[in-house]
User: Which sequence fits this backbone?
């Protein structure tokens, strides 16, 4: 199948490159032309709009920041829906509202286009190495058709149910990350205040019950003052906003997610929303008047 890719940011460009290197014929589009031209030099076919991509491919992957961005790609001027190409499969790998995922799938289905929501976890490292965790919602038979493509991008690929189920699972993932990341930041702050070597603390904790992806991958970055993004803090806050909306709808007390959301809001107010999620430590450092590392 010929594949299209719309959205070549931190994650999308790495994912598109993996498809190219796996031998897929790839058509790419992005709002800024730099990533398009870069991938074109590697063998991808450039396109000037999502509609143009849709007209030329069998499967179209989207990887953009939020629900309004997905809606614009699909239904805006020059969007996928304008192509009128029946039988096209859209795989949205962004993280958006499950409610919107179901709505978009229904609107596309009316035009003869199938849609899966297939958000990912694993950051830029997972995108580069093809080890992402992918959680998928939509029709099972459509999932089976595109599973070989997803297998190039991810190591653990799980069908979760109908449209929206993938996005709901991703929000569960983000809620779990929020608590783990806050715990890592507080633990390192405590280690510093106690006069311990924070890198030794990370090494010890990584071998026991306190171990987590956040500790192993982001803990050293915090100590080394490396706050460049594998996943942007502003995008994480967006995900937790969705979690809070779902929690309100379902009458759930998502206390940890709410706290991290507010801390990330403070981080963005400092102009640091483009930093990685590990920059959450900077907010806690400011509250404690103490520096980690």
Assistant:
């Amino acid at each position: 199948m010929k594949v299209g890719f719309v959205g070549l940011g931190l994650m999308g460009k790495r994912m598109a490159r993996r498809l190219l290197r796996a031998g897929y014929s790839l058509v790419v589009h992005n709002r800024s032309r730099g990533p398009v031209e870069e991938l074109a030099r590697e063998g991808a076919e450039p396109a000037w709009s999502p509609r143009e991509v849709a007209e030329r491919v069998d499967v179209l992957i989207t990887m953009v920041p939020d629900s309004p961005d997905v809606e614009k790609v699909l239904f805006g001027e020059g969007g996928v829906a304008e192509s009128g190409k029946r039988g096209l499969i859209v795989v949205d790998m962004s993280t958006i509202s499950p409610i919107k995922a179901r709505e978009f799938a229904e609107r596309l289905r009316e035009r003869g286009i199938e849609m899966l929501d297939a958000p990912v976890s694993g950051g830029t490292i997972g995108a580069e190495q093809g080890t992402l965790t992918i959680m998928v919602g939509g029709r099972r038979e459509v999932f089976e058709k595109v599973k070989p493509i997803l297998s190039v991008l991810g190591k653990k690929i799980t069908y979760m149910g109908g449209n929206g189920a993938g996005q709901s699972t991703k929000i569960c993932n983000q809620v779990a990350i929020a608590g783990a990341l806050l715990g890592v930041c507080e633990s390192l702050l405590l280690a510093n205040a106690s006069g311990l070597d924070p890198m030794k603390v990370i090494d010890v904790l990584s071998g026991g019950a306190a171990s987590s992806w956040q500790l192993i991958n982001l803990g050293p970055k915090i100590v080394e003052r490396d706050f460049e993004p594998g996943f942007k803090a502003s995008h994480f806050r967006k995900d937790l906003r969705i979690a809070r909306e779902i929690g309100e709808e379902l009458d759930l007390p998502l206390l940890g997610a709410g706290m991290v959301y507010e801390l990330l809001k403070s981080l963005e107010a400092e102009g640091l929303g483009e930093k990685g999620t590990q920059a959450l430590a900077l907010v806690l450092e400011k509250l404690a008047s103490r520096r980690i590392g």
